[in-house]
Amino acid sequence: MQRNLFHVTPSGWAGLAFAAFAFLVIPAVAGQLWLSVFTSASCFALAAAGVAFMYARLGMVSLTQVGLMGVGGWVMLRLNHAFHLPFEINLVISGLVTMMCGWVLALPALRLRGLYLALVTLMAAGGLEIIFATFQFPNGGDGFWGVKTGSAAPFARPWLAQTPEAYLRYTVLVVILGFLLIEAHRRLAPGRAWALIRRSEAAAMAAGVNIVLYKTWAFGISGLLGGVAGGLLAGSLGLLDDATFRASESVMLFALAVVGGARYWLGVVIAATLFRVLPALLNNWGVDADISYVIFGAGLLHAVITAPNGIAGQIHDLFGKRRKAEAGEKGAGDD
Amino acid sequence: MDKSRLLNWLLYAALMALVIGLLGWGKPMKILGLFFASGLAVGSLYALGGIGMVVLYRASGVLNFSSGAAGAAGAMTTWQLAQWGVWPPLAWTACVVVALLATLAYGMLIAPRLAWREPVVKAVATLGYALILLGLVSFIWIDDPRSIALPTDKMAVNFLGMRITITRLIVFVASIGVVVGIHQFLGRTRVGLHMRSLANDRDLSALIGVPVVATETIAWGISGVLAGFTGLMFADLIRLEPTVITFMVIPSIAAAICGRLESLGLVLIGGLSIGVIESMLTLSPTLKNVRPIAPFVIAALVLLWYQRGTRLTFSGRD
Amino acid sequence: MKLKLALAAFAAACAFALSGPAQAQDKPSCGANTGQAASGEPIIVGGIHGNAAPGDFSAATDAAAAYFKCVNANGGIHGRPVDYRVENDQWNPELAAQAAAKLVNDTDSVALVGNGSFIEMAVNAATYAKADIMVMAAGCAISECFETSNIVSTNQGPLPSNVGAAQYAQEELGAKNIACIGLNIPNNGIWSCQAVIDFMESRGGTGSMALLNPGAPDVNSALLEAVSSGADTILINQPAGLALAILKAAEEQDLRDQFNWIAPTPLYDLSVPDAVGEYWHGHVYVNAELAPFQVNGPDAQNWIKVMDGFANPEDPRDTFAQAGYLSAKFFTETMLAMDPADVGDRAKVSEAIRNIKGLKSDLMCGPYYVGNADFHMPNHAGYMVKIVKGGYEIVRECYQYDSPYFEKIIALEKEMGVQ
Q1: Is Membrane found in the keyword set (chain A) (predicted)?
Q2: Which helix (H) or strand (E) holds B19?
């Protein structure tokens, strides 16, 4: 079933419209507080896209994604304080380094599946949490770890995006590129290979699919997205703190991707919104931080129980006229 | 088959000896003993947490992230009752009861609605429950330095020049006792048989008339009691802070992984070894600052070791 | 909720009992003290605290809020009320940045007062410098709070308090080798433990540090590391919860009489003497960075009156609350001394705060000043107390800490003429 690479589905049009909205309207109307919130949310949307795509396309669960963001952010800060390269070059290197970390994670995936694979990735997240807590993030100090006391050295934002508004637009643009990257993969050879692997690895092997290559590739892409997301987050704050990258946050990001609906672009957006915008809203309304935990946990449980395809799945079912024909086609991408 | 098993055990013994030897080289025996004993206590707690998790996972297919939170709720209740001057044994029992109720509530009300989801989703859903419990506990008891004490903290035995409190001994003995007890329970009783059959194949068990719901409820109950006991001991031996007790589940999962989520004996050995190695790492000048990483590295290595040589070909069961 | 109230009422009662026969009927003294409610255009003042797991740092902003309420009921600042807006960073760096964006960039606040957090200062120090806004913090624990241009804190933070405790141990308890059990966080534990080692070396002794990961359950290894380091004194440089765990582990192994036990301010908390238990009574020396409750000078009494009159009953009455009260009081006094036309102008308020020097209170040993520098640490003298049954006993009155770290601070004080 060869489809045109550039065919735009209705869901895709909606995604593009939302992307345009996020790019043009939100930065123009949001105050400083919400600019900061939406920038964070965009970074986590990119990372969640990686988790969601692995889960929806390959049935593989990664509970390390936020930890990988930390790796990307670490590399970003390290490069920023060590050399004076442009932001974009640092961002690409952060993404590539994290991609390699993704490959390392792929090694167990060749032997493990389901819960066991998820647990290995959880152990990796736990290990990264300890490393970040022990060595912290570079802030302009000397030596390999680059940590000093006192105020952090300045962070060079991209030349194009010096103001918070411009930086949010910049982030949204990178996120859109990330979504398009996933969608392009889905429509080309890797997408077909992944679909086969998800069905049955034996069948995939029989069909001549290089399982090692494609699984590793998927982990690499997920790592790449996580790393770029971490780099962007570092750029948003100018520094990072280990509290952002706890193992429990990685579990939470996966849980929210399921709640949002891992198969749909909207699901990823919902996941990121729940992860960053909702807590900010509750905080802004003056809800006690402990009570927002309760609300958050209850909402998570409720959504997991009532919406098997995620919230985006429910929305999709409401709107999709030809949903039976197209349910299998719509993807995590924008077009 | 037996030969490879023996090989595994020899390899384990050799590795432990190597690690302890390398870390403890040139240190006086007394110091080694102190770190070893301290590691055993923490390791017993990891093991207890892991055992509760494995019992429940085998019977119901749920890996419960909320057992730490249930234990934290119990331990805080105990502290509160002690503040109010309640008779101490009643306060300790309350810890177990609260954890049991909190766990059963999830097991009976929420878990059945997720029964058809895949194991990972079931596992992460329990994290939502953990957040609810943790949020409530932190809301009721504002952050303040607290501690609970058991009378056994004051009693101690002297062993090779070290002073070891009875509480530490209780935890150590309890972790072994629980493994033996549950092993007997699974092997000798009808409910145990049901649990084993559920662990083996859920669908087939249901078909041949195993009372799935009742058996699962008992499993949730056992795990709740263990969560309460672990929470109480953790609060006494380590510290009484809800967040710390809640997130103790992550190293406990590491211990559970060492037993492949099925063998209780291996969970115990895994938990103890993790605790001892973590404690002994303090002796290494280069590694001492990252010592809490030990559970994760060990669990990941163990999991890879178990899976060596296997290939995934058919989808479905793990 | 009821429980929370009951606990708080209990804490309040304790604090009140300690404060002695204060004239509860008296009106507290705040700001211009006119007794008239302020009605002009509000002056916006911000505050950021961290309240979530693993700790609650909101006591200082609660106390500052109470003081500002009292000021508003007493003529405000030149007739204008203070609109005090508090944000919670929840120990999350992104929320901390968002709080600053909201308070500093989205609103015309003139200053931030009473901040108490473990991470907010590290995240936002650059934002404050860029916006030229001054932060009169009250609950600082990390180096950024003391070594940046726009933050000044009433509390001491771990470094001076550690050095103070070490100095007492060296002078009075005969300590020659101190093992500092700190958090494995560069800008907190390592920073403040290193200062103790430097201090001991400047006095011909030695020191070492044993570090603990904050999230790791096992505290005993760090204690054993300190024990096996050859030290004669153990400094527990930890938040109260972890410090209790360490003391408990030491009690189990009956280590009390083999070492001197000292600690910085976090162990000065009214719940601690009960929580540590009888075993430790009379054996743990704690540095108090503000005046202990039994000193009970006029400002301490006024603080209790402000809290009773304007704070919620469940707000804590502790050292951080005193620090928050002091920050708010010094801020108000500074604003009242300004030209009424300038009090709404951030740049002019920042200038006035930088010019603060020589403000005094019986809660603080030394004078409070700010100055125009890249570092601020006005409070570096304190008391030493001993944990006894039901409370604390003062073992040394106000004393200046003496360490190489304070040289540049003392030079600044000489230059400003506040010494």
Answers
A1: yes
A2: helix B2-24
pLDDT at A321 over 80: no
- Is the Cβ–Cβ distance between A222 and A54 less than 8 Å? yes
Mean pLDDT, residues C389-404: 89
- Please give the domain boundaries of chain B with CATH numbers for all domains: 35-303 (1.10.3470)
pLDDT at residue number C394: 92
Lookup result for tokens 């030149």: C78
Does A40 sit within 8 Å of C102, measured CB to CB?
no
What are the tokens at B28?
A: 């006086």
Right CATH for C2-157+293-379 from 3.40.50.2300, 3.50.50.60, 3.10.105.10, 3.40.50.12160? 3.40.50.2300
Tens of pLDDT along B47-82? 999 999 999 998 888 899 999 999 999 999 999 999
Determine the pLDDT at residue A324.
53
- Under 8 Å CB-to-CB from C300, ≥6 apart: which residues? C19, C291, C293, C322, C362, C363
Tell if the CB–CB gap between B247 and C215 is shorter than 8 Å.
yes
Q: Where are the domains of chain C?
A: 2-157+293-379, 158-288+383-416
Residue A253 contacts B where some CB pair is shorter than 8 Å: no
Helices (H), C277-387: 298-310, 319-336, 346-354
Q: How long, in residues, is chain B?
A: 318
The token pair at A219 is 């982990």
Q: How many CB contacts within 8 angstroms connect chain B with chain C?
A: 121
The predicted model scores a pTM of 0.86
Is 0.90 exceeded by the ipTM?
A: no
Do the beta carbons of residue C83 and residue C64 sit within 8 Å? no
Instruction: Give the model confidence (pLDDT) of C226-243 as tens digits.
Output: 988 889 999 999 888 888
For residue C17, pLDDT beyond 60? no
Q: Which residues share a beta bridge with B162?
A: B159
Q: Confirm whether C2-157+293-379 and C158-288+383-416 share one CATH topology.
A: yes
* Chain A to chain C Cβ contacts (< 8 Å): 98
With bands split at pLDDT 50, 70 and 90, how would you rate the model's confidence at B310?
A: low
Which architecture, in CATH terms, is C158-288+383-416?
3-Layer(aba) Sandwich (3.40)
Beta bridge partners of C46: C85, C112
Encoding tokens for residue A285?
Answer: 């309304």
Only one residue has tokens 């707000």, namely C315
For the record, the structure tokens of B47 come out as: 């093991």
> Is the model's pLDDT at C21 over the cut of 50?
no
- What pLDDT, on the 0 to 100 scale, is given for residue B312? 58
Q: Is A32 on the interface with B (CB under 8 A)?
A: no
**Mean pLDDT across C47-62:** 84
Judge contact between C119 and C93, C-beta under 8 A. Answer: yes
Burial B95-134 (b: 16+ CB within 10 A, else e): bbbbbbebbbbbbeebbeebeebebbbbbbbbbbbbbbbb
| 8 Å CB contact of B296 and A111 | no
